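sorry for the late reply, my laptop died twice this morning and i had to redo everyting from scratch. anyway the thing you sent over, i finally got around to it. pasting the sequence first so we're on the same page, its 222 residues, then the predicted structure underneath. double check i copied it right bc i was rushing
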Amino acid sequence: MNLHKTVPLLLSISFVLIASSCNKVPETDFTYTPTENPEAGMAIEFQNTTVDGNSYSWTFGDGAFSSVENPIHIYDAAGNYDVNLTAINDAGEQAKIKSITINEATGMGFFIYDSTGLNLLVGADVLLYDNESDLTNFEEPLLSGITDADGKIFFMNLDPIIYYILVAKEGNGGLWGLLVWTGEPIPQNETIEIHLACDWYADEAKSSHHFSPTLQLIKRSN
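ok and here's the structure:
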């Protein structure tokens, strides 16, 4: 036997075996947040926990995809979706599929009218608070927005709590204003529509905070 030829061959075989044992296909896995009550319109953060992956391919079950290691995805509609993560390295690839249930959004939509209750107000400020004190003292709101060209505004992905709402719209010689509250927590995973008619406050009746109307309860049908 020619030892000069055999020894290099054995070393070569050993190197291949060692290299193959170290280069394993990825162990693919992932998590996501929030896990409790993810809603349509909410940013879902996916955390890639794969071991030995070099590149990644995501599909989210709604036609969207990503190659980002830790993507953020928003589902437009409620439903059940299969999320597929495929991790790839030099040894091959492995996929992991998990189902995610996206719930209906928790929200409130407002249609804001003038004091007649007939004319929708464009450009009215609508501010949401979680307590009466902040509302009546005109503190920084939780959320705020302005009614669109149709006199409406929607707030989505809200917490199911009691909300206090301030509405104000400057007019010629005064303003339309309203302070209201929901009276009970808004229903989770539902979007309710609320129609509000503001009161008119002439310039001479406005306080230093513009107006001081009485807090009213929103009445809505079940």
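The helical segments are 3-22, 132-136.
thats about all i looked at so far, will dig more tmrw
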